Every structure is written in C-alpha cells, then in structure tokens.
Amino acid sequence: MVGLVENSVESIKVVPTGTAVGAEVRGLDLSKPVFDQLKEKLIELWGKHMVLLFRNQDLSDENILATAEVFGGQQIAGSRAFFLKAGYKAGESDRVSEHAGISLVSNLDQDGKPAKVTAGVGSLEALWHTDNSYVEVPPNGTLLWSEIVPTNGGGETSFNNQYQAYEELSDEFKEAIEGKHICHDNLRNTAGRLRPTAKEPESRNEITGPAHPIVRIHPLTGKRCLYLGRRYEGNSSYIDEMPNEEGDDLLSKLWAHATQEHLRWTHDWHPHDLILWDNRCTMHQRNPVDHTQARVMHRALIKGEPIISAWDGKAAAE
Questions:
Q1: Fold that domain 13-309 belongs to in CATH
Q2: Which pTM value belongs to this model?
Q3: What are the extents of the domains in the chain?
Q4: Residue 92 neighbours by CB distance under 10 Å
Q5: Closest among 186, 260, 266, 254 to 226, alpha carbons compared
Q6: How many distinct helices (H) and strands (E) make up the chain?
Q7: What is the pLDDT of residue 5?
Q8: 305 and 72 in contact (C-beta within 8 Å)?
C-alpha cells in the first residue's frame, strides 16, 4: 500500500457493507506491524461487523500468519490430517502447505493447471458451511487472501449473519431446538465430496464428527447465534437427540431459514483481497469457478476456544 507510513487507529477508515454483515477496513497495511491499540480496535470492529475486508494487501504466508496472531493465534486445519494420511507431502503439494497454519485453497491440479475437480474443492461450489465445525474445538475465525482470481469467472463468496438468523426464529422454532445438538460430519469437504481416505457412511452411526449445540453463545458479545456447521445429502450431520426422519426435517427447515438472502453479503474477489470472518456467528458459501481459469487462495484459521453452549444456563446471556 503506497504511502502508508505506519498502521494506527487514526489511519483506518471503516466502511460498512450496508447489509446484514460485513465492513471494509481501509488505510491499513497488514504486511507491517499491528500494535496493541490498533489490535484492540480491529478486534472490536470484528466483533461488531463479523466479517472484515482489507483490500490491496501484498502478503506473504508469514504475514497472513502474523495477522492470525493479531486476532487470537493460529489453528491447523482439520483437513490437513486427511491429506497427510493419504500420502500428500508438506511443501510438495498445493493441498498441503509447508506452513502448518496455511491451507492452500485452489482449483489447480497436480500439474498446476486449473481443473473442475481436484483432490480439494477444485472449481466446484463450496456449500454453505462454517469452517472446521467438524473438530472438537472449532476455529474462532478464518483469514482468506486471494493470490490469483479468475476474471469474471465466478468464485464469489457470501457470508451470513447467524445472530440475526437466531433472533428471527419463531418462539415455536426456538422451543423445538432447545437443548439439542448436531453431530457434525467430518468425512466430506465443502463441496460435499469425500475426503482422502474417508469412506461413504452407510448410516448416521458412521458419522465420526463431534456434537455441538445448535445454539452457541459468542464469548465477545454474549449473544446467541445459530451454529449449524455443515450438511450434505445422504448420511451426514444429524440432530443427536432426534430420530433420523424427524431430525432431518427440522434441520432442513433450519438451513432454509439460516441461509435466507436478507441475512447475507456477497464479495466479488480481486487479487490481494484479505477477508477475515467469524466462524462463531457466520456461515459462508462460494459460487462455482470457471474451471479454465486459475483461482489460488491462502487460508489461515484463528485459534478457537471451547464452544459455550446456550443450553448451559450459567453461560447464556440474553
């Protein structure tokens, strides 16, 4: 960012998206140090807007990881273990970065050419989800930096507001989900394809992910938000306390409610955009990508802490 001498609270300008979620932060160069006063301000803005956009950021992986430290530290992605188990070598594949805290999200095949289907998500749509909800302690947030993006080739990312989704539930709906937990499917990626070494589950008993409360308390705001995680066709995430058919019907209604258009903001990527989002109170989705054009993104996860359940009366704040 030409002409920016030093990052400071005074140097930044905040421009809300005008939708249910998100704001752009201008006047900041994240390749340079972020000191305590500015750090506190950025965390405050993150809590308020849930999704922050920083444009024109010329960043290395080390810079991205340093930014993760500003917002709470790094967390290794749960998908990394699947690729390592399948024989992918760190630093030798675009699926496993040499930096444990960085995931490469691209549509390049093993020959470095854009493709529709790869070992990862490839050029397919990334369905609505929350990052790494399938681990015991999910990450608080995600940083995604665009190295290469297609020209008019799709790949736009949408984010939605799960505070508002919970608030807009009817009293009857809130009563129906009270005390219930979702077992989160860890066998598939965000395009719904099985991960390397994972096998198609024949029943919900073979879904090996953890159970999390359907409603969680955000530790910074004390507010309730829906926490649905991820869901795919067939045997996938399910409500632990309900029979299959009844639970699936309730989940279908919840997903339809939580992904309504008025809850979202959509970003059309440019090279060197960096977006930070809060996995505790948002979900996101990515449109399909033109598989003839390259798309390469670098992702870091923000270290999480144990989920605060809304079903624990001592923790719930209204």
A1: Double-stranded beta-helix (3.60.130)
A2: 0.91
A3: 13-309
A4: 9
A5: 254
A6: 6, 18
A7: 54
A8: no
Long-range pairs for 135-139 at CB < 8 Å and ≥24 separation? Answer: 135/78, 135/186, 135/209, 135/210, 136/210, 137/304, 137/305, 137/306, 137/307, 138/212, 138/279, 138/304, 138/307, 139/75, 139/279, 139/301, 139/302, 139/303, 139/304
Q: Residue 314: its pLDDT value, please?
A: 46
130, 51 Cβ separation under 8 angstroms? no
Residue type, 86: A
Q: What is the pLDDT of residue 235?
A: 87
Average pLDDT, consecutive stretches of 10 residues, N- to C-terminus, the chain (318 residues) = 69 97 98 96 98 98 97 81 58 62 90 88 92 95 98 97 98 97 86 77 87 97 96 89 95 97 98 98 97 96 97 54
| Cβ–Cβ < 8 Å for 216, 227 | yes
- The first and second tokens of residue 39, run together, are 């750090």
Rounded to a whole number of angstroms, the distance between the first and last alpha carbons of the chain is 42
Q: How far apart are CA 104 and CA 145, in angstroms?
A: 10
Give the C-alpha distances (Å, rounded to integers) separating 5 from 27, 33, 172.
Answer: 10, 11, 55
Nearest C-alpha neighbor of 212 from the set 310, 285, 141, 283: 310
Structure-block tokens of residue 312: 């624990």
**Is residue 29 a contact partner of residue 1, using CB atoms and an 8 Å limit?**
yes
The Cα 64–Cα 22 span in angstroms is 20
| Element of type H or E holding 42 | helix 36-49
What was the pLDDT predicted at 96? Answer: 63
Burial 256-287 (b: 16+ CB within 10 A, else e): ebbbeeebbbbbebeebbbbbbbbbbbbbbbe
CA dist 241 → 84, 120, 212, 232, 267 (Å) = 34, 32, 12, 19, 37
